[in-house]
Automatic annotation (TrEMBL):
The keyword Membrane applies. Pfam families: OmpA, PD40. Keywords: Cell outer membrane, Cell projection, Cilium, Flagellum, Membrane. GO terms for cellular component: cell outer membrane. Residues 530-650 form the OmpA-like domain. The keyword Membrane applies. This is Flagellar motor protein MotB.
Length: 650
């Protein structure tokens, strides 16, 4: 009887835990499942539910621990290896994460491409952390709480943001949301203390006409007509088909066992100087079928960006836009396209003051969780998506960014400072203080009869440092090892001009990216002897097979040659092109002449006098190794013969 009673209690505990989990009450589900574990041997279901709950709550440290337990069960689904890897990656445990992604790629061949891309992203993240961008990132004062604070929007009067804090002062603001254990998301405003300061007063919630009892936010604000665009979450009864959409911030697709789910819509309200009025729904809201949220309005009010999981997208959630018609209505939503959207989650779109589209994604190559990205182009033709890298991104969720007109200062939302996955609002600004430039002057030349490069130091060279656009310089000389240094300011454009008798003068332009005043930036100047008729190989000048047009990588190298010609206005040079021995002698001669002429034409297009340049194609007449006609050679040896050189004629 005692054993029977114990089993009955255990079954009741398990039933209650499952109820919490299926109702998205994950903070309660965790405690309930742990209570079950205290009474019985761990089972896959219970351990899996604990791991899943921690993952959904963005507590990656606990999730990594519990997924390690999950995959120890012989009958664990291989998908748990992927979830374990994601959790390890979010904790910046990149070596472990890479190992797990590779293991998953072997066990699930259908997902091999995705898994290998994720494994590669671990190496990329480590590289970015070793070479951080020059930003100072700090937790913002006043606005942050013990809960999740995110989605900052600056206005001329203060700061609008969203938060799930339970209390404001000593007064409870919302009911407890058992998903997280915090409150429901509400919108807050922190007023500037005066027109002449950026210091903010304590935040206060927006009125009940905006903040309903359930989730409200994130939002955007159009200053010119004082209109608030915001997300509002609705509880709707689930249909037999369709996705389950439960998390107001991440669109987590939860269990299908419940009877209701959360879906989002966009709403607008104008501020008339004293109160918010006329809350209107976006005409394309359709909470019975899908969610629309995370609004971002263009500064002119003509384009509304938003996030949706409506049918026909590229992934879990996509970024869309709608254009305002002549009559003031909103046009049909248009997907922002595959340059922006992936098979993952794109969210938190924002149009920066610099005219670029900022958004978060876990589908593009990133460091873990949601990463911040920037896209160039226009709403109809976004061209290039760029990861903002470390420290704007971390292994945790980084999202909800707002930038100024320079793109180098602003606010962002991140869970990086929290052990429990809750978000904070952070400030960031490019570092522009003092640091140290450390440089070296070297000479590089090819070992006779080979393409092997020999590097030697150049001592006693004169170095002059100019602020870009200035004619005043500070000077120093390289020491016996070719080393030199200058104090510099991060973010300032400089030019270093180097010279020494017997060498061509050289100028290098650079902008230091330093993290603090103890940081250093490295610059190398490569000197070339001013010896007539001595060939110098121009590195990285490659052509496609049978082609002679200048590729972008080659243009970078030729730009250095353009600068050398400007630094040494008296010299005249021959630009020569060489082929390997494949194809006929005549064909190679013609092709090499075309390539040499293309290089000369490029220099002329950049302002070099054509009378100072001679184009000469040598075909296969000056091979530097044994790879002549009739001799079998590796591709690397043929590549050595395909080269571009210059030599000083006078």
């Amino acid at each position: 009887m005692a054993a029977s009673g114990f089993m009955t209690v255990l079954a009741q505990d398990m039933k209650q835990a499952d109820k919490y989990f299926n109702n998205f009450e994950f903070s309660l589900a965790l405690e309930a499942y742990k209570k079950v574990l205290e009474k019985e041997e761990p089972s896959l279901l219970v351990v899996q539910r604990i791991a899943d709950s921690y993952r959904i709550l963005n507590n990656s440290k606990e999730a990594e621990f519990w997924y390690a337990q999950v995959i120890a069960f012989p009958n664990s689904d291989p998908a748990n290896i992927y979830l374990y890897a994601e959790s390890a990656k979010r904790n910046a445990n990149y070596d472990k994460a890479k190992q797990l992604f590779l293991e998953y790629s072997e066990k699930v061949p259908a997902q091999r491409e995705v898994a290998l891309r994720m494994a590669a992203s671990c190496d990329t993240a480590k590289k970015w952390m070793k070479n951080p961008k020059p930003y100072v990132v700090e937790k913002m004062e006043v606005v942050n709480s013990d809960g999740a604070d995110f989605g900052p929007v600056r206005t001329k009067d203060g700061l609008l943001f969203s938060s799930d804090r339970l209390e404001v002062g000593n007064k409870q603001q919302t009911a407890r949301n058992n998903w997280t254990g915090n409150g429901f998301i509400q919108m807050y405003f922190a007023q500037k203390l005066s027109d002449t300061t950026t210091t903010l007063a304590n935040p206060v919630p927006l009125p009940p006409s905006i903040n309903t009892e359930y989730h409200n936010g994130p939002a955007d604000y159009l200053e010119k007509d004082q209109t608030l665009y915001f997300t509002r979450t609705h509880v709707v009864k689930k249909r037999a088909t369709g996705s389950v959409n439960s998390d107001p911030t991440s669109w987590f697709k939860g269990s299908d066992n419940g009877t209701h789910t959360n879906r989002h819509g966009i709403y607008m309200s104008k501020f008339n100087g004293s109160k918010w009025e006329n809350v209107e729904a976006f005409k394309y809201n359709n909470t019975d079928e899908f969610s629309i949220g995370h609004p971002a309005i263009s500064p002119d009010g003509k384009i509304l960006y938003f996030v949706s999981d409506m049918p026909g997208g590229y992934g879990e959630t996509d970024i869309y836009y709608s254009e305002r018609m002549a009559d003031g209505s909103w046009g049909k939503p248009t997907n922002a396209g595959p340059v922006i959207n992936t098979s993952g989650r794109e969210s938190f779109a924002n149009l920066g003051e610099d005219g670029k589209l900022y958004f978060s994604s876990d589908g593009h190559m990133g460091m873990g969780g949601l990463d911040l990205f920037r896209a160039n182009g226009t709403h109809k033709a976004w061209t290039q998506v760029e990861n903002l890298q470390y420290p704007l991104n971390t292994s945790q969720d980084d999202f909800g960014i707002e930038v100024d007109s320079t793109g180098k200062k602003g606010l962002l939302s991140s869970s990086r400072l929290s052990d429990n996955g809750f978000d904070d609002i952070l400030t960031f600004e490019e570092y522009k203080g003092p640091c140290l430039l450390v440089g070296r002057v070297v000479e590089k030349f090819a070992q006779s009869g080979t393409v092997k490069t020999i590097i030697t130091s150049v001592p006693d060279a004169m170095l002059q440092l100019y602020v870009d656009g200035s004619e005043e310089a500070i000077e120093t000389k390289s020491d016996a090892e070719g080393n030199f240094s200058f104090p510099v300011m991060a973010g300032t454009k400089y030019q270093i001009k180097g010279s020494k008798k017997g060498y061509l003068s050289q100028t290098v332009a650079f902008t230091p990216e330093c993290l603090n005043d103890a940081d250093t930036v490295e610059v190398e100047l490569t000197f070339i002897r001013s010896t007539p008729n001595k060939p110098v190989v121009i590195e990285n000048i490659y052509y496609d097979l049978d082609k002679f047009d200048i590729k972008p990588a080659a243009a970078l190298e030729l730009d250095r040659l353009v600068q050398m010609m400007k630094d040494n206005p008296r010299i005249r040079i021959e630009l020569s092109s060489h082929t390997d021995s494949r194809q006929t002698h005549k064909y190679n001669q013609v092709l090499s002449q075309l390539r040499a002429q293309s290089a000369v034409d490029y220099l002329v297009s950049k302002g070099v006098d054509r009378n100072r340049l001679v184009a000469r194609g040598y075909g296969e007449t000056r091979l530097i190794n044994k790879c002549r006609d009739g001799i079998s050679c590796a591709e690397e040896l043929h590549q050595e013969n395909r080269r571009t050189e210059f030599k000083i004629l006078r």
